[in-house]
Design a protein that fits this description.
Blueprint (H helix, E strand, L loop, with lengths): L15 H60 L3 H5 L1 H12 L5 E8 L4 E5 L16 H12 L3 E2 L3 E2 L5 E11 L2 E11 H8 L2 H6 E6 L5 E5 L11 E4 L8 E6 L6 H51 L3 E6 L4 E4 L1 H7 L3 H4 L14 H12 L8 E6 L5 E12 L5 E10 L1 H28 L1 H28 L4 H29 L7 E4 H19 L2 E5 L6 E4 L1 H18 L9 E9 L2 E7 L7 H4 L17 H11 L3 E6 L5 E8 L3
Parallel strand pairs: 17-19
Antiparallel strand pairs: 1-2, 1-6, 3-5, 4-5, 5-6, 7-8, 7-10, 9-10, 11-12, 11-15, 13-14, 14-15, 16-18, 19-20, 20-22, 21-22
Helix pairs in contact: 1-7, 12-13, 12-14, 14-15, 15-17
């Protein structure tokens, strides 16, 4: 449907920045999303780094506090406590129970000899001299010289553990009376001092200045290459560091969901932009195609002479083309939107128009073309040929009816003139035929007239002689009357053949038509020396039509056959008139033994004004075919196998 498209829709051509703007916006969106993700990742890393530093500093402060406190408690052990084993053991147990990583407590006298140790036995090498190392005595001398607690360097012991000592000088009356020694295990310090929540976050170890791990607390092995933090382990110092490495934990679910959502949103925006661009391009292409199609259809509808009229299911006119407007004389604005009755309906045919209109809307109208008579705006009536077709929309639903109308007024007038001209030509042809047969007909009439005159003279002679008998006179009068009837029949046939009358449709006896036609040409055939042979079944069937016109066609074909044998040897001049019945039709054949017809001539035999005779009109065979076809029959030519031509007529038999 093209009716709703405006005739002057302006063409929209998008500017370049229309396409550039969404691309720039999308690029900026991607950059913003990327910057947001980077900022979020950086902020998260900085937060983790800050938390790592804070946790390690807290741990370092906590360890420092514990060890300083242990120094104070060790400094409270004096000679009195060391003198009694039970008292020393009680102090040692209290220190070890503090869970500060202290695994042994010892008491050295002023000379540096071990007097008490718990737990364990007194061994000259148990303190600072295990596995051949002797830092402990140096640590003791340094502590006595400094007068404060001194830590030793770490040294390995069994089970891959490392330990160090803190030696605290004990004074009495201003003199050093001994050294209280605390032996720490690095592994034990980490196990006792690091809370569970810190161990869940980091792998914490103690390393030396060379980076070697002396002790560590970890639930799993930390991965290398990730963030870490180290701080000097002081006390005890001596190049020891607390080294913390955070575990690589999966990113928070909310962060992952946010990142995934942003990526998905970016992809969705990209896809939607691409889909929108494609849709807009297709829409523009479709609009351009629609405008082109509309312009083409509009030009086509404006140029055709067929009127187009569209109506909806309620009978309201929705569209008319210029040809329809010219046909009825009203403008489109006067008709679009109108309901019945229509202004082009004739007043005298109103009921008929309304009935046909309602039948069409109900879907019961004619399925083929049909004729109606419309009225122009000036009151003139004209005939139209109409075909109605349903209007189907894009969803397959019927929305109305489209009618195409052809003004056939001039055509019907031309057909009437052609019919009248055809009748004139047929009458003229019959007159020409009669003129050509005049001499033969004159000879045919002379015989009965001469016989009548002879019988009349004989009767007069007998009356004058007085010897006339009534019987002889009666016989002569009867023969004269018979000859007069014969002449009357000849004249009647000539009159019926020559008169111009309206074509008739009546039941005709084909045998009578053939006999009358042969009677018309019998004299001409005798004059030409042509023998007529009849091969007709008995009885011949009846047909419906005009017997004069059918007789004219047979006469023309028989005369043409007689004329075709003028140059044929007399002994071969034979005309065969045959008939046969097949499939409800009667087929009549007129065969001659003449010169025949060439292929080029046969192709034009039935054309108007085509003739091979110098004096011919060229209308005989054309009229014959028109007559036969008007009776729903056929006329055609065939070459005769024995030489000459055969013209065949096929007519339907009257049931």
């Amino acid at each position: 449907m093209i009716f709703d498209v405006p005739p002057a829709t302006p063409r929209f051509v998008p500017a370049n920045w229309y396409w550039l703007l969404p691309r720039v916006a999308f690029a900026l969106f991607v950059l913003a999303v990327g910057a947001l993700l980077l900022h979020y990742d950086k902020a998260e890393k900085e937060e983790q780094r800050s938390m790592l530093i804070n946790d390690v500093l807290w741990l370092e402060q906590d360890l420092r506090f514990l060890m300083v406190r242990q120094e104070e408690v060790l400094g409270q052990i004096g000679p009195q406590q060391a003198a009694s084993a039970a008292s020393f053991e009680a102090h040692a147990k209290a220190l070890i129970a503090g869970k500060a990583g202290l695994r042994q407590v010892a008491w050295l006298d002023a000379a540096g000899s071990i007097r008490r140790i718990y737990p364990g036995e007194i061994d000259a090498y148990v303190v600072g001299e295990a596995r051949g190392t002797v830092p402990s005595r140096e640590t003791g001398r340094l502590a006595k010289s400094l007068g404060k607690a001194v830590y030793s360097a770490p040294y390995p012991i069994v089970d891959n553990d490392w330990q160090f000592e803190v030696q605290v000088p004990v004074f009495h009356a201003g003199e050093i009376v001994g050294l209280a020694v605390g032996i720490y295990s690095l592994r034990q310090i980490l196990d006792d001092s690091i809370p569970w929540w810190l161990a869940e976050r980091y792998r914490i170890s103690v390393i030396d200045s060379a980076g070697a791990t002396l002790a560590a607390r970890s639930k799993v092995a930390a991965k290398e290459g990730i963030d870490h933090y180290e701080i000097p382990f002081d006390p005890p110092g001596r190049g020891l560091y607390l080294y913390a490495v955070p575990y690589r934990e999966p990113a928070p679910l909310a962060g992952r969901m946010l990142s995934a959502s942003l990526v998905l949103l970016a992809l969705l925006v990209l896809w939607s932009l691409w889909a929108l661009r494609r849709h807009v391009q297709q829409r523009l292409a479709a609009e351009e195609a629609l405008r082109t199609e509309y312009a083409f259809r509009k030009a086509m509808e404006d140029s055709i002479q067929i009127g187009l009229r569209a109506r909806d299911l309620d009978g309201r006119i929705t569209y008319v083309n210029p040809a329809f407007c010219r046909m009825v004389g009203w403008e489109a604005e006067d008709m679009v939107g109108r309901r019945p009755p229509m202004p082009y309906w004739p007043d005298e045919l109103f009921d008929e128009m309304r009935t046909i209109h309602d039948r069409i809307l109900a879907g019961k109208g004619p399925t083929d073309v049909f004729e109606l008579r419309f009225k122009r705006r000036n009151g003139e009536l004209f005939d139209v040929l109409i075909r109605e077709a349903p209007l189907i929309d894009a969803h397959g639903r019927q929305t109305g009816w489209m009618g195409s109308l052809v003004d056939i007024t001039e055509r019907k007038r031309a057909e009437e003139l052609a019919r009248q001209q055809q009748e004139r030509l047929q009458a003229t042809s019959r007159l020409v035929t009669m003129g050509e047969m005049a001499s033969s007909l004159a000879h045919e009439l002379n015989q009965p007239l001469a016989a009548i005159a002879s019988y009349n003279t004989g009767c007069l002679n007998m009356l004058e002689s007085g010897n006339a008998s009534p019987e002889e006179l009666k016989l002569a009068m009867l023969k004269g009357a018979e000859q007069a009837q014969r002449a009357g029949r000849i004249i009647r046939r000539i009159y019926q053949f020559a008169q111009r009358a309206e074509p008739k449709s009546e039941i005709c006896h084909l045998g009578d038509i053939i006999e009358e036609a042969l009677g018309m040409v019998e004299a001409d055939a005798r004059r030409q020396g042509v023998r007529i042979q009849k091969e007709l079944p008995e009885p011949l069937p009846e047909i419906r039509g005009d017997k004069v016109l059918i007789g004219q066609a047979i006469v023309n074909l028989v005369r043409n056959a007689i004329e075709a044998m003028r140059t044929t040897p007399p002994e071969q001049r034979q005309l065969t008139l045959s008939a046969g019945i097949s499939d409800g039709n009667i087929e009549i054949g007129v065969a001659d033994r003449g010169c025949g017809i060439t292929a080029a001539t046969a192709a034009r035999l039935f054309e108007p004004f085509f003739t091979t005779k110098a004096e011919g009109m060229g209308m005989g065979l054309n009229i014959c075919r028109s007559v036969i076809e008007a009776h729903q029959g056929r006329l055609w030519y065939e070459p005769n196998a024995g030489g000459g031509s055969i013209f065949r007529i096929q007519l339907p038999i009257q049931p």
